[in-house]
Amino acid sequence: MSGLSAVLASAAVIEREHKLSLLLELGALLAQELDLDALLGDIGHRVACAMGAERATVFVVDSATGDLRARIAERPDLPELHLARGMGVAGWVAESGEAVNLIDAASDPRHFAGVDRATGFTTRTLLSVPVRDGRRAIRGVLQVLNKHGGPFSPEDETFLQALANQVALALDRTTLRAAEGSERGVQVRGLFNHIVGSSPAVRAVYEQVTRAAAVDATVLLRGETGAGKGLFARAIHANSRRRAGPFVTVDCTTLPDALVESELFGHEKGSFTGADRRVPGKVDAADGGTLFLDEVGELTLAVQARLLRFLQEHAFERVGGRATIKVDVRVLTATHRDLEALVAQGRFRQDLFYRLRVVEITVPPLRARGGDEVLGLAEHFLEGFTRRYGRPGLRLSSASRLALRAHDWPGNVRELEHTIERAVVLCPDELIGTEHLGLPVRRVAAPEPTSAAPVEGVVLPLGLSLSEVEARYIEATLRACGNNRSQAARALGVGRNTLRRKALKA
Ligand SMILES: Nc1ncnc2c1ncn2[C@@H]1O[C@H](COP(=O)(O)OP(=O)(O)OP(=O)(O)O)[C@@H](O)[C@H]1O
Ligand SMILES: [Mg+2]
To answer: Would you say the CB of residue 309 lies under 6 angstroms from ligand 1?
Structure first.
């Protein structure tokens, strides 16, 4: 083999390995609790590198509108890219399902120059392939622009298609996955991978979580039981520089007082009866990562004192030991208790309280997030449980959807999750009725004045005539049923004709 061909052959091997490792990386990326924007951007970035292109974009098709949405990895400062259905080459690919390879983008009528203008970019060559899932349904488009040193080759096309298949698998494991049985597109449900919700109240939490992830400060997560404190704690860790390190949880409620200290800090052999060997604590286990103290309000004053010292000095001694051990641990804590009241009663140290709440994040209760979010979460859990229990095609009846919206969810997201799981198990046919939800009747959500998001539903001021009340209620129900008159009529317990007559009057 001549020198040149040997070099070329080894370059080809390196390139192939590079491409294979990219395929593996995409899978690993998804396991993390990354912000979806960051995730899609990161995928785009890696695809561009592997393809030797200047830019790569992952578009997803929004199943509600057919529009394409994307964010450009290289320009995070720009707003989301939005292409109306069928617009641009990506829109054409999403509609036709065929790949497009252009050597001169400007001369192709499908090319939409508006995006270039908006992003200050000049597209020369372009390769665009559909993102199809296992059932061949189109979920998005993967597009690369401006290959260095010439046009995209047929091999590039084959490889980009392989990457697009990985992206489809990947989407399926995020909150961007397709709704059960949907023919095209994905449901855009939230900003975080694995976390559902886009109400203003939850968006505010996303922002705080993102900021908290960027620093190493102690965080106190507050909020009612089942609101998602544990989930957001994990999201902080997974988005922090410690993401490759351990995430260790200690549930302070389930430990007997006597064991909390040794559980946290470990103990030396012989330090108490039964301590027949040296045992490292959770603090050791979390070295290089994050320690999450759940229900921190339950700690005794003695343990609080040791925890405070640990937070101040990042050092501790094992129970029964003398050596001071240093570790690199970030501490997150959570509680549903009123810590101010515990401080006032002398049951929680004030200095520790201040130390814990360097960053304080309050996860809002479900009832403050609005009915759309309740339904979004319900659909998310429904998909999960129908897969787990092998019950495809199971749907919520319109009356069930109204009941889910109306309930005030004292047990928050966890209560909703259990409600849906029970319904999936109990429901004998395809339609989940209110009887399978087991929610108490006539418990209507009370608007919460302090919440950031208005509660979904209808507020009826006193002093209206009965017919006016009826009209407004019908209008709200129709809105809740997406203007589907048959559904609304069923939910209201009247015939479609009656509804039409009453709605006309309204
Ligand atoms: N926004 C969300 N999207 C998807 N799943 C969620 C969301 N919020 C909570 N969950 C799920 O709901 C359940 C309860 O959440 P989590 O355990 O984080 O709540 P918590 O506030 O820690 O509750 P507790 O105070 O009882 O410990 C979990 O199964 C979690 O995965
Ligand atoms: Mg919890």
So the answer is: no
